[in-house]
Amino acid sequence: QVQLVESGGGVVQAGGSLRLSCAASGRTFTSYAMSWFRQAPGKEREFVAAVSWSGGSTFYADSVKGRFTISRDNAKSMMYLQMNSLKLEDTAVYYCAADGRRYLGSKTGDSYDYWGQGTQVTVSS
User: What is the pLDDT of residues 101-112, one digit of tens each?
Assistant: First the structure.
């Protein structure tokens, strides 16, 4: 069992930055590939970024590539999402997710074993 808790969300003006954190507890953090997803009101959940269990591999949705950076600190059982140049369309609830079967998580939410409760990010004009 893994518990995931997101934090760092808030309200920010367009063009600003936020850093999200995901704290993991329970089973060995390094056993899990980790990812961020988001869900905007009235829209389906979408993949944002993924990081391998080692932290050595990452990939991003095209919509955030070049603006967001995913990272993890295995010693602290933490994952992060640095979000820069935020746009109105980045407004959503952001979720972290853990996949215990893959080296690097997929874009498909169904493949993940554990999810956090989410943190709201609101980008204002």
Answer: 989 989 998 889
Cα–Cα distance, 60 to 50 (Å, whole number): 7
Candidates 54, 56, 50; CA nearest to 36 is: 50
The Cα–Cα gap between 109 and 111 comes to: 5
- pLDDT score, position 110: 86
46 alpha carbon, distance to own chain's centre: 11
- Long-range contacts (CB closer than 8 Å, 24 or more residues apart) made by 105-108: 105/33, 105/34, 105/35, 105/50, 105/51, 106/47, 106/50, 107/47, 107/50, 107/61, 108/47
- Nearest alpha-carbon partner for 69 in 2, 7, 13, 17: 17
How many other CB atoms sit within 10 Å of the CB of residue 17? 11
Question: Which candidate, 96, 103, 107, 98, places its Cα nearest to that of 62?
Answer: 107
